[in-house]
Amino acid sequence: SNVIGSLNPRYGLFGDTVNTASRMESLSLSDRIQCSDASAKILAEQDPKLPLRKRGKVAVKGKGNMITYWV
Fold first, then answer.
1. Mean pLDDT score of the chain
2. Following DSSP, what letter does each residue of 21-69 receive, concatenated?
3. Which residues does the annotation mark as catalytic?
4. How many CB atoms lie within 10 A of CB 69?
């Protein structure tokens, strides 16, 4: 993340995490939350009662096949 511009400064987010989150959103289904395998592991540790369902491999542009989960 960084401040972009000098006349009209704005805070911009970019990088691998933001790109992955964008892909998860665009490849998801309506009214569903999709997350990566790494995020699912963290969620399971923080809240073991949270229902996570494996979606399987999804072709993600720039990342290849990723295993994703429904939250």
1. 88
2. HHHHHHTS-TT--EEEHHHHHHHHHH-TTS--EEEEEEEETTTEEEEEE
3. 23, 61
4. 20
